[in-house]
Amino acid sequence: MHDFLEFVCDRFEVVVFCKGSELSCSPVLDAIEGGCKRRFFAHRLYSDYVLFDNPAFSVKYYDILLKDGRRLAKDVVIVDSNVGAYCLDLYNGVPIYPYSGAETDRQLVALAKCLEELKKCEDVPDTIICKVNAAFATTGRSSERKSSTS
Q: How many CA atoms lie within 13 A of 38 on its CB side?
């Protein structure tokens, strides 16, 4: 995970957005950054920016990212395993499968390639619509799903 965070921090401003409270999430984020020479997360956002929350579904408020001159429509890429969390900004979202815990989990490698491609584009939403969501539908853990249902 640290290799992935080093990679993305060299290329992007990384903002972590947790559904939980600062009190419960900060120690986890501190542990991730602990022992490293740099901070990975430029900003940390917590549950006070969640618009709607219940046990089954939550929606995050991404407009907070616009206050520092970012353009959500062009500049921001949202990565989340819960598409509902960014349902108000679908064209900026890159879905990812939750971490499985298996040594064969390569989601961060695939995500790094995807982010590198998005860095080159002029319009994030257009690229996501054309490439990322189509790739997500045809790649990932489809072989794992097939074998688990057999």
A: 12
Give the DSSP letter string of 9-24. Answer: HHHS--EEE-SS-HHH
Residue type, 32: I
The count of structural domains within the chain is: 1
Do the strands 57-60 and 43-45 form a parallel or antiparallel pair, or are they unpaired?
unpaired
Reference 97, options 83, 81, 86; nearest CA is 81
Tell me if 84 is assigned to some domain: yes
Over residues 104-119, the pLDDT tens digits come to: 888 888 899 988 888 8
And the tokens for 100? 């499985």
Q: CB count, 10 Å around CB of 76?
A: 19
Q: Does any domain span residue 108?
A: yes
For 69-102, write each residue's pLDDT tens digit.
Answer: 666 666 778 888 888 888 888 888 888 888 787 8
Q: Indicate the pLDDT class of residue 24, thresholds 50, 70 and 90.
A: very high
Whether the CB-CB separation of 83 and 95 falls below 8 Å is answered with yes
Query: Does residue 130 sit within a domain?
Result: yes
CB 111 within 8 A of CB 94: yes
* Predicted structure pTM score: 0.71
